[in-house]
Structures are given as C-alpha cells and as structure tokens.
Amino acid sequence: MKVVGPLIVVLALVGIAWCCTEYLHWYALFGLVIPYVAFALFIIGLIVRIVRWARSAVPFRIPTTCGQQKSFSWIKQAKLDNPSSKAGVFGRMVLEVLTFRSLFRNNKVEKRDSKLGYTSAKWLFIGALLFHWSMLIIILRHMRLVLDPVPQFFQILEQADGFLQIGLPLLYISDVLIVVGLGFLLARRFAIKKVRYISLSVDFFPLFLLLGIAISGIIMRYGFRVDVAGVKEVMLGLVTFHPVPADQLSTILFVHLFLVCTLMVYFPWSKLMHAPGVFFSPTRNLANNSRAVRHVNPWNYPVKVHTYAEYQEEYGEKMKSVGLPLDPEVVSTNG
Amino acid sequence: MTKKWTIGIFVVILIGIFAIPFLVNAGRVDGDPDVSLDTPQINALEVKECIEPTDYMRESHMVLLDEWRNSVVRDGNYEYRSQSGQIYEMSLDETCLGCHSNQADFCDKCHEYSSVDLYCWQCHGTIDEENPNAVIENGDDVLFTEKA
Amino acid sequence: MAKVPPEKELVSYSLKPDTTAEWMDTPTEFREGMFCHAAKPKDLETVDFPFPHKWSPSDEDWGLPENWKEIILDGMKDRLDKYRSFRLFMDVCVRCGACADKCHFFMGTGDPKNMPVLRAELLRSIYRRYFTTSGKLFGKLVGARDLTEDVLKEWWYYFFQCTECRRCSAFCPYGIDQAEITIMGRELINLLGLNTEWISGPVANCYMKGNHVGLEPQTIVSNIEFLMEDLEDITGKHIEPSFNRKGAEILFVVPSGDYYADPGIYTFMGYLLLFDHLGLDYTLSTYASEGGNFGFFTTNEMAKRLNSKIYAEAKRLGVKWILGGECGHMWRVMNQYMDTWNGPADFLEVPKSPITGTVFENAASTKMIHITEFTADLIYHNKLKFDKSRNDHLVVTYHDSCNTARAMGLLEEPRYILKAICNNFYEMPEETIREKTLCCGSGSGLNAGEDMELRMRGGFPRAEAVREVRDKYGVNTLTNICAIDRASFPALMDYWVPGVRVAGVHELVANALILDENDDRQLDMRMEELPSAVAKREAEAARAAEEAAKAAEAQSDGEPKEGDAE
Fold first, then answer.
1. Between A56, A192, A270, which is nearest C80 by CB?
2. Cα distances (angstroms) measured from residue C153 to each of A175, C2, C30, C350
3. pTM, entire model
4. Enclosing domain of residue C491
5. Which partners does chain C have (≥3 C-beta pairs < 8 Å)?
6. Which fold has domain A4-301?
7. Does residue C346 share a domain with residue C494?
8. Tell me: the pLDDT tens digits for C84-139?
C-alpha cells in the first residue's frame, strides 16, 4: 500500500493533466492559474516552515564533533569537522550541503557469527549526489525559459551538459543521471530490507513524483517534442505577469508542468524540507567553542537547587567529625 | 544561525533566488522572438508553406534535419517525400536556406531566444554579413562568423 | 543481577531483521534483562518530580494519571518551541537509513526498532499525528499514529535502549541526533513519573549528598584517605588531599565513581599522585563531589540543578579555575551546557597551568579544563619524567568515550599522554574509534545490574573491536577517560573478551611517573608487581637457584646427601 498508493496518485496526476488539457482544453487553468497558485504556495510554505523553525530556540550549543577539538597549538585541530570559528562552520556547512560529507563517512556493518566487519558503503552517497546535482543542473538549465537574453553561464552549462553530442536533440547527461539517481534511490527502498522497513508512503511519493517530472521532461525532448520557443513565450509571459495563451503547446508540457506544480505545493509540507532544514541543524551549524564563548539560552530560568548552606546544615556534624572545615559565613547567614 | 537576523537574511536570500525570474524581467512586456519570413525567395512563393506543417516544423525540424543528414551521408539518398507527397532535395543549404536565407532573422531568432545551441553552421553555409542574401556554399572560411 | 544467556545464544541474532510486518503493527515485548527497574517514588519526591508512584515496567497497568495524554502532548508542544533541534529533527528526516547500522544497540540486538531512524520514528509518528496537518488528515498513510499506552511503553523501552552516544548523528546527512530525541523522549516520560531506579536514585543522591553514589562527607574523606594509604604503600609518599579548602587555586571535580570503586580508584590515585608531585594548589569538594550528571538523563532542568553546585562551590571557595577528571557525559555537560545553564563564571579566571604557564584559551569562558588537557600540556613542556617500562606489562588500547569524542573532540590529548607513558599502544579498527567510536553500551544511566543482557548486547560491537586487537597484538588493557566505562567495561570484558583489564589514563600516568631519583617502586597502582620488579625477583630467584645448584654440586662432589632421591 505504501508503494502502490503514491504511484497511483502520481499516475492520477498525470492523467488529470493530460485529460484536462488534451480533451477539455483547460489551458488557462493548467498553464496560468495553477502555476501561479503553486508558486505562491511554495514560497509562502517555505517562509511559514522556516519561520516556525526560527521561532524555536537554540538553547544549547550542541555540535556533533567529528574530529579533534581546538586545544593546543601543537595539536592539529580538525577545523572542518570540529569547527571553532564561523569560518570553520561555514566550511563544514558548504561541504555538508554541496558534497554530503556526512554521507561520505558512511560504512556498512556486517555480522558473521560473533564477528562484526565494517566495509565501505559509498553507494548511498553516490546515488544522492547523482540525483541532487543533476536536479540542480536541470533547474539551472530551465532558467533559459524565463531569462531573455539567456546569460552566458546558462549557455555554457547547457553546452557542457550536452557535450557528449549523442542524438538530436542532444542528450543531456543530467537527464540520464537524474533518472539513474532516482532509480537507485527508489530501488534501494525495495532492495534493502532495513530501508524498506522504515520507508513510508511519503518516502515513495516524492520519488515517483520526481521520476514523473524527469520522465515527462525527457519525453518532451525526445518523444513528443514541444516548440521550445513557444514554451518560452508562455513562461516569459508568466514571469512578466503578461500571460500568453498556452493553447498551442503540446499536452505533454502540461503534464510536466502540473507535476512540477504539485511538487512545489507539496515541498514545504513534506520531508523535502530537508533541503533548507540542513542549514538549521544545530549539530552542524554551530561552532564547538562553548567553553571559550558563553552560549546564551534565551529561556534560561532559575531552578531550585540544594545549596551549600543546606548541605552544611544537614551534614555539618559529620563534616566536623572528620575535620572538614565548616564555612562560618554560610552558617551565620543561614543560622 | 542562532540569531534571528541571520535567519532573516537566509529567508530573504532564499526568496530572492526564487524571485530572480520575476525581478530580471520586471517591466518587460514582449516575449515574442519575432521570426521573419521576409526573404525574396519566400515572398516569391505563390503558396507560402514549408515542406511540412508549421507546427511540426516548429517542434521537430531538428529531427527532420537529423534524418536528412543520416540519409544523405550514409545512404546517399537525397530525396525527401513530404507528408503531402511532394519531393524535396535533402539539403540544408539548398532546400531550407534556399527559402530561409535570412539565418539571423529566422534560425538565430528562436535559437538565441531559447538558448538552443546548434552545430549546423560548423559545416554548413552561413550568412555573409556584408551580403545577407548570398548563401556561401561551403562555410569553411566563415566557420564562426561573428554575429552582430 | 539478571542472568545473561551464554555468548552463543546472544550472538544468534541477525542484522537483517525479519521485516514482514509493519513496525507500527509490531507490539513491544518487554524482555527480562533488557530493561531497568522502575524509579522509586521516594527518589522522585526528593527532587520534586511529578507523579511519583509505585509501578513496574512489566506490569500491565503503569498507574498513569487520568490526563496522561494531555500531559505528554502539552509537554511535546512546549519542547517543540524550546528546542529547535527537536522540531527540526521531527521534520527533516528522509529515512535514508544511513544511521540504521550505526547504533551499537542495533548492531548488538538486530532489533529494527533500535535503528536510530526508527527509534526516532516512535516519537515522530506521534508528532505527525498531533502537530502536522497531513498527519491529522491522513494518519497512518503518512506515518502518523495515535498516542496510546502501548506507544508510551514502547517509548520507555526503546528510549532506555539508547545511550545518547551520538554516533548516528555523525553519519546523518542533516546531523539528526538521536541523543536529542532520546533526551526529549525521556523528558516526556519523566512528566509521568516513569524513570528508572538506576537513574533517579543517583539523581536524588547527587541532589542531597553531592554525588551519585550517595557518599556523605565523612565517607568521602575516609574513602580517599584509605586510597592514600594504598598510595603510600606503593610509592612511599604520604599524601594529604585537601577538601573544601577556601583559597585554593584549583577546584578539582571528578566523577564519584573514581573514589568509590575499582578500577576508578586507581585512576583517582593517579590524579592525586600527580598533583602531589607537582605541588598543585588544589582542593576537592564534598559538596560538589560529582562531575557526572545523571540529571542529564532525566530532564534538562534537573541536570542544571545538579550542575549548579560546581560553580557555586568554586565561588564559595574562591578558587581561580576548575579542573575536571576523566569522565564522559560529564564532559558533554561541561563543554556544551554548564556555562549556558549556570554561567557566566565571571568570578573565575581563565585556567592557567601553574607549572607551564599555559593559558587555556579554549576554556576562556567556562574556566574548566579536562585533566588530559592539563597533563598533555605538562608532558609537552617536559615537566614530567616517565619510566615507560613500568607499563610494560600492559598492552594498551584506547577507547574514546562517546561524549568526549562526539560532543567535545578530545581525541589526541589522551593519545598523546598514552604514547608518552607506555611502550605498547595499539589502536582498535579505524571504524570503531575517534568520532566513530562505539559506546560501552551502558552510558546514559543504563549501567544497572538488572539490564545486564542489554548492556552485554549494546557493548558487543565495542568488545568485538577489543577482541580483534587482543587477538592481533595481545592487548590486555582497555584504557579510557570515562567513569561509566570504568564501571561497566569490566563486566563487558569478562563476558566477551576475558583477560582484558580496564584502566583510566591517569592510572597509567601514575605507574610511569618518576617522582624523584629514589623512586624505585615495585608495585603498580593495583599493588601488582611492576615488570621491573618481576624481572628483578626472577633474576634473583634464578641467581639463588643457580647458587643453590652450585652449592649442591659442590656438596654432591663430597658425599650424596640424604633425601636427594626424593
């Protein structure tokens, strides 16, 4: 159920977009209203979620230290894995966000009778990198649809992505890799028993949705082609708030667009928020300098303690018996 | 990230990134690539139609050209029969550019607009800037013509 | 103490658990030997914890108050606002499974609910159901479930099968820390009076008497005097430790296990021998006689209440700075919490070694340094002379305790010391040390007797790594800088790797430390003969035997002696 359900939902979304445009010709709804609404919900959702995180306090400085602390000049500090400065934290976050450093650390434990063995396990790291980097490149490539003239950066990126010069239109490497990456991430949810066990329907849904987006996009390029200039006219119309009728565009475009809109609406209310979330993780974004610089807890409050005066009152006689000094000041104020 | 203003900046940057398409296009009205069909050859045509329907040509001309290239280079076959039954010569320079002799105002308009990079002109004729209506038979000497 | 099944039975589990049924449909079975006794009402009353009552984990009825659900949900809401870590870690997990096989409890039980991700889902599923729209609308479809007594029991069972070691957090791409989730889970459980005896007892002790083991001041003094007598027998030095002394330069705080029980006491003797040798102006306190903090395993507030004694005592005694002994979670608290809770300690000075003049800028605010930092600095400045051969009977490996490794990064200092004081030092496999260190399996208040099977299972991955270096290099000594390690490893080693002893770093420091030119000790801190003494005795015995043989030979040259035939 947790697999079939999300798959049916994604297929239904495809069907809805297809029927509503191909047969019902609701172009204004799917090419204009839904994209605007979805984008607005995406932005609002992001802000709501981030503000909610921001309103929760960070009472303690709790970085997970993954290397040598800063102590002496003659002991080499692991400045990235155990940062003590803002620069170190920045470096750690950059590595975490761009290269998934923690996943790179991954290993796999195997048990044979009463022995445990640790082997390298980089597949998840590789799969995750493939998907996320392909996704980023693809999003950047799409900027050509909303920017005119297209800045050189995006042109170079696109040329680099298609440099293999396979087929016509040119095959994008990122198109292949995103499907491979998503396919891998999906396959491991089936193949690895432990991962399948912890997987929820909401783990499968985004994978199917993203696969749907990727595949519909690829079909648009290599199967049912669309008039790119026409698509750009529509997209530019949207971002300039001067919408252009989208009725001459192929149905497959609306399928693609509708899935993307679904993703935008779904994103802020799902686990996909891990993307902005990683920036907020207190075990990663804080420096391990809490002994050098006091971290202030905004809701710190006084607590009931057992004072020395009470202690001396209770144990004074016993302390005296073994020659422990009693504190006269404490006795007088408490006496 | 502990201080509120850091988060404020983070949110502003994040929203700013997503707002880029709206910001850079602010005030812009016209998004049309404005393709020109105004060439002497087209103007001379009685019925102004391409070898295949316009919609097909817009979406799939690259596929057609790819098929032509393979057909000519591999099979030596120069004949193309269109859906309407007309026979055309499979030649980018003769057939396509024969009518659309205004590369800069026809091909390049859309390709630049959509940022679709193409390598046709690495071999094929291109437009002589001085004399835009003259198609150079073999573009060897003007491989990478500077575009104005 | 619960009987632990034989090794064969214990290792019969698989790391590929049976996953045919959904985890939400798998009921929790409370297995004897895998959980601790319930908290005693009087211990909770001592510290004013809510709902002290008599109950037992194996009971059907836990005697919950009528409105327990409301209490838990209100408690969650409160903490979601107070701890960004909690809210974020509820939201951002993608269940990639990178943490799944990083937990020593999973590695030692094969119980899928011990995968950190799933242990967190136990709480996350409730968060979704009551705090997210999708969970309210779609329930189980999106991994949400109702809060029931069974869920509460499941929490209790599994949040006390987590030692808050943070190993999962090192591997998580978002740094999700199961320790944070366990800490929150235990806070919630405490709202209903449901802690364990082994945690709430020490908490009550520490609150009233200043230390977990519940020693009153006169007992602390006599215990330590007794240890000093042993030290005098070993070294010939008479050491007078100082207690509660105003005007001392340094307040020295150790985990109470160090002056309470074997083998911590040898480490304690090591500290004091070193201080005496240096002529350090320090004092111990009977009021702040605990470095560790079992309050940390109940609630943040309780941890703060216990911790407050250290600064309060430093202020009362007028010391300049604080030195801390070898302890694990104590140092998580000192490094990441103390200053925030009970600081600023502006009445203290930045720690400065009176011997080397080194100013410990890394503790500029907290004003407390770790003893291995202090000693490493001494060694670096050549202030100590060692006879490494005195540790030649020990083949040493070093266990990074979880908290000093992953909540501090104190990795090289102890190793620097060990390499200066012993000749035979070998590291355990790379994946089991430093930031990837494996827990002893008894941290965060799980080192009781009745959950011995749990401890043996949780400690198995660590023990297995020790076994590897024992078999490879003949390692016979597992050093560490954690009082819970010293308390729990002996049982673990006896079970899995017999013949390996457990020692604090400063025990070995004291062994090797040359006090003066007349220091020709024969015994180590455990009153066992030093290798040199053994060699000397054996050489003497050999010489004696040789002489006797010669004499006998000389005699037999004359006439045979009666009884030779025997």
1. A56
2. 48, 21, 9, 47
3. 0.91
4. 201-512
5. A
6. Fumarate Reductase Cytochrome B subunit (1.20.950)
7. yes
8. 999 999 999 999 999 999 999 999 999 999 999 999 999 999 999 999 999 999 99
